[in-house]
Every structure is written in C-alpha cells, then in structure tokens.
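Thread: Newbie trying to understand structure tokens

Hi all, I'm a second-year student working on a class project, and my supervisor (Dr. K.) asked me to get a predicted structure for one chain before our next meeting. I've only ever worked with sequences, so writing a 3D structure as a token string is new to me. If someone could post the tokens and maybe explain what I'm looking at, I'd be very grateful. Here's the chain:
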Amino acid sequence: GTQLAEPPRAGESWTVEPQGGRLALRREDGAVARPEVASIVARASDADGLLAFGGRRWRGELRIGVDDGGRLLVVNHVPMDDYLKGVVPLEIGTRAMTDFAAAEAQAVAARSYAYMHLLGPGRPYDMLATVADQVYGGVGAETPLGNQSVENTSGLVLMYDGRVVNAPYHGNCGGFTAEPGDAWRSGPEPYLKRVSDQIPGSDHFYCEAGPRFRWTRRYTAEELRQSIARHLRTLPQGPESIERVRAVVVTDVTPAGRVAALTVDTDRGRWTLRGNDIRAALRTTSGEMLYSTYFSVETVEAHGVVQSLELRGGGNGHGIGMCQSGAIGRARAGQDFRTILTTYYPGTTIGTID
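---
Reply by user tm_fold:
Sure, no problem. This is what the structure looks like when written as tokens:
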C-alpha cells in the first residue's frame, strides 16, 4: 500500500471512496485531500492501538484498496493470535470455564485452518470474516476465556505426517461425524474419518445437549416447489421453473447413515442431488440451509404431487472434522483439548509453528 505523507490532523475526518480503480480522499468540505492513490494503510494513533471501522474495533492495521469490481476493499492485517481472539467466541460461542478445553480445541483447529489458507490464490487477503472461512468479529467479539484459550495454545496446530492440516469443524454431528466425500466434491483425507460421538458404555452422546442434535423440518407443497425450483435454476442444465414436485426419495446413504443421494422427481425431469447440494436444495423459503444430511424422509402424496414433506434429522453443518457440541460435551466430561482434537482428527499430532 501507499502510506500518506500527510495524514489527517487530530480531529480531522477524511472520506475514502473508490474512483476509477483507485481511491479518492476528500476532506469534510469535499475538497480533495490527496491525489488518487492505489491503497492506503490505516494505523491507530490511540494508546490502546485500536482502529474503528464499520461500527467495530480492530487490532493491527486496516489496508484499504479497491477490488476487481471497483468496490472498496478493507482488509484487517493482524497477528495470528489477535485474529483468533476474534474468531473463537464467534465459532464456538461464549463458553463457561467448564468448557475451556473445548475453546482451546477450537483455537487450535481455527489456527490450523487459518494457516492452511494464508495467501490464498487470486485474492488480496487470506480469509473472509464470514462462515465462508471463519467468522471474525475483531475486538468486540473477544472474551476473557476465549483470549486465554488462544494464548494457552499459541503456535499450536494440527499436523499429519509432518505437515499442517486443514481442520474443518461444524456445529453438531448428530452422533457421528462424516468424511469429506459425504458432503464435498473432494477426495478422502486420512485424518478426516467418521467418528462416533457416543459416550462409551451408554446410549447417550457427547453432543446431545447441543443445538439441533435432533430436529424436524416440514414443507408444504408450495414451499417444497419453491425450494427445489430455486436450486434447479442454479444447475447448468436446470429448468427455469417447475410446476410440481412428484416425489422425493432417498436413493443412497453413507455408512454412517447420512443421505448420500436424494432423488427429486418433478414435472420438468428427475434430478439426483448429492452431498451439500442436498442441504442447498432444501433451503427454507427464507434461505436457511437444511441443517444437515443426517435425516429421514416422510412424504404425503396425492394426485401425483408431494403435498407435504417432513424431514427428521440430527446435527448441524457438514459434519466433517470436529463436532463443536461434542467438544463441549467432552470438555465437561474432563477431556483435555489434545484428547478432543486427536479424537475428531484421528492420526494427527499437535505441533508448533512460528
């Protein structure tokens, strides 16, 4: 970026806006403050070293530029552990001390994920601050316990065969985690195996107290038609619209009981959905994805049309890697973060990076 030779004086405000692929800087009266620049770097002048942007406070620097679409792009450039302090509470929730080992496990998993996504190809930042990567909220998201979990595990990452690994995680596995091919169009990984969350010697599960361990979702004929039609429009050969859904049938399941293939018969053809496409196709009319692919199907049909669809399922998320609800249950049962992590990522070790 370009550092300004004469930044705003104390109490003075400048407006930064994209203009022709560069940045225009204007004073409060609209006068040009500086000639157009490609980028700027904002650093804090306050004693606490924090920056304010978008109604939130941030550590480190804010690097401001213009993206390929001509829009303002603001990137928070921050040390890894400061970043993780703004991630852990948003990903695993604000935890009590009884759950501390789960927060530590979350910190190590999130650090491993972040390390594997540094300088991703074709983008001027490492990660998005959303569920597309990891939810990050800056200083306002931090909690004392979350900060302590990051500091206690500083530099620790998951490794397999001497290399840092991608460490996906999800809200609730419903009792059994999944493998990558169950949800994604990707090959197997030796450390991402199906893991049971059942408590040994009992009929209970570590994750059963977590949200959406079990759930039910119902669709009317019109809700189902809208959901399926919206998804089919996104497919290369999909129709622009459908008038009716004739049948919804589970045609394949994984060894752990998740739905591997769901066939939907419509007046415009028959479509087989797989993996996370199933969750996308069965979004609610408000756009919320189906919680998981661990479900059973019950339909009521009349006159060649599905009149209602009821799904009874378990879990929340893709199901791969660490089950966050299970990690919390395991922490409450006395497991430490190392045991939690090596259970959900079998064959891994915990190593250190600089």
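A couple of things are worth pointing out once you decode it. The radius of gyration is 24 Å. The first helix runs from residue 80 to 85. Feel free to ask follow-ups in this thread.
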